[in-house]
Amino acid sequence: MGKFAPLRRSEAAGQPSAVPLNDFLFWGSLFQGLDRGGSFLQLQIRQMIVSAIEDGRLPLGVRMPSSRDLAALLKVSRNTIVIAYEQLVDQNFLVSRERSGYFVTGLPKQIGAAQEPAASEVDSRRWTERFALRPSTFRNIVKPLDWQAYPYPFIFGQFDPSLFPTNNWRESARAALSVPEINNWARDMIDGDDPALIEQLQRQVLPRRGIRARADEIMLTIGAQHALYLIAKLFVRGDTLVGMEDPGYPDARNIFGLLTPNVTPLRVDGEGVLPDDAFARCTLAYVTASHQCPTTAAMSRTRREEILDIAKTRDIVLVEDDYESDLIPEGNELPPLMSLDRDQRVLYVGSLSKALAPGLRLGYVVAPAPVIRELRALRRLMLRHPPLNNQRVAALFIGLGHYRSHLQQVGRVLLERARLLDELLPRALPDCRWQRGAGSTSYWISCPDGTDTRRLSEAARAEGVVIEPGDVFSINPDATRHCFRLGFSSIRTDRIAPGVTKLGEVFAGR
User: Fold this and answer.
1) How far lies 140's CA from each of 131, 358, 407, in Å?
2) Which of 383, 507, 356, 498 has its CA nearest to residue 446?
3) Closest to 472 (Cα-Cα) out of 487, 486, 454, 449
4) Residue 80: in which H helix or E strand, if any?
5) First to last CA, the chain
6) Are 64 and 102 in contact (CB under 8 A)?
7) Tell me, what's the pLDDT at 20?
8) DSSP track, 204-252
9) Helix axes 166-176, 402-428, angle to 10 degrees
10) For position 2, what pLDDT does the model report?
């Protein structure tokens, strides 16, 4: 393998080589993470070379393997290597010398030694004493970051890669990269949003939920959580009494708890939040009417109207989190609170991320114009606006009709999965009770009293099954320690039956 040999010292203009003499092993290890079966091989190779140059594994003057030799080593086409090398030459990472090959041109010498500082307990305590708050101590939903590596990921809020509209999204992204489009989204909008996306929300997204809104009544956010944080920051003082569904969405509970100690639990039943005395005493109440989080209960039309009547009488601001709408066409879909609101009591929070992919991080708020004006001013202090390139891609995706067709396709698949689970759960978990509101992509499962679903989830994960323990959803963790959430938007249909069977076996042997 001498053909891979690096330059000698004299050939490298006096620069020593850090490449080992056993160059075959060196070049093999340098590209060890290459996914030869994946896409964009040329991009992967370029990234690996740039990374090696940046961290000093490929120092100044090192000769790269010939395109033929590297292609043979990596089992890729020679053209892939040639394109990668030429791009790196254009970027001044490599230089091409006639009849000699490609060489690393190097980087400017770094000032000082780049050493990672060692953490000490004293330093940690010094910073801890200065913190005004400790959000890391809050109870949150925890999902494994590598959930896709598990064969049976029954988790909520993630996506099945096989359902993502790759080609249609790619078409929209390419369209957003045309010169005229770049001129539209590359500018700084200060506290504004992409008018094209606002228009598409008005025309195609909100009307599906029965909501009509002017442009000055809509604002984009980095996901629904960002919207909830902005609303809380704008409306919640230290003495504000905030009503929080219990069980309910942990992140919303934590957001409100940052700003006031007066977060009061609101009871829920088979129709969602109860309009009782505790609800009537609130100044602001967080509500998930379409699918109560996490029980999935759908609020009846009568209950919705009752909630709105009390909000009007007692001057309560309602934050409606419509986090899971339009996904499964099942049953008679009820209108959100905002579409029934005649007194401007409702602040509506929606998301495009649930329908497409959580990594998209695009949410929105619909509220009276004076509220949106203040929310925009507040958002400007944090990040001005969500990235406009993402907004424009989403606008094109919706405007080209891809959003509507995507929802139809995903809806059919998710409904098939729900019906399959309806058949499987009675056999796999005969001692448990469960519920799933029409259109929901998860089940809320209640196990016999005394069951610790956190331990159950750990045992299930060891068998490749991921579920979500229920204790985190309640202010008092013991109240729902025997429950867990079983999502099905992220697991392939053909994995559901063996996954549920495996979960039943783990539950039976607990």
Assistant:
1) 20, 17, 29
2) 507
3) 454
4) helix 78-90
5) 56
6) yes
7) 45
8) IIGGGGT----GGGEEEESHHHHHHHHHHHHH--TT--EEEEES--HHH
9) 150
10) 42
Those residues of the chain that have pLDDT short of 70 are: 1-22, 24, 37-39, 106-121
Question: Strand, coil or helix: what is 94?
Answer: strand
125 Cβ contact list (under 8 Å, min separation 6): none
- List the structure tokens of 388: 């406009």
Q: At what angle do helices 453-462 and 493-508 cross, to 10 degrees?
A: 120
C-alpha–C-alpha distance, residues 75 and 231, integer Å: 54
Q: In what order do the strands lie in the sheet with 468-469?
A: 433-435, 442-446, 483-487, 468-469
CA-derived radius of gyration, the chain: 27
Q: Which two tokens stand for residue 303?
A: 């209950």
Q: Which residues contact 285 (CB under 8 A, 6 or more apart)?
A: 242, 243, 244, 266, 273, 279, 311, 316, 317, 318, 319
Contacts from 251-256 at CB under 8 Å and sequence distance 24+? 251/140, 251/141, 251/225, 252/228, 252/286, 252/321, 253/475, 254/135, 254/138, 254/139, 254/140, 255/225, 255/228, 255/229, 256/232, 256/286
The 3-state secondary structure of 335-397 reads CCHHHHCCCCCEEEEEECCCCCCHHHCCEEEECCHHHHHHHHHHHHHHCCCCCHHHHHHHHHH
> pLDDT (tens digit, 9 = 90+) per residue, 441-468?
999 999 999 999 999 999 999 999 999 9
Instruction: Say what the pLDDT of residue 106 is.
Output: 64
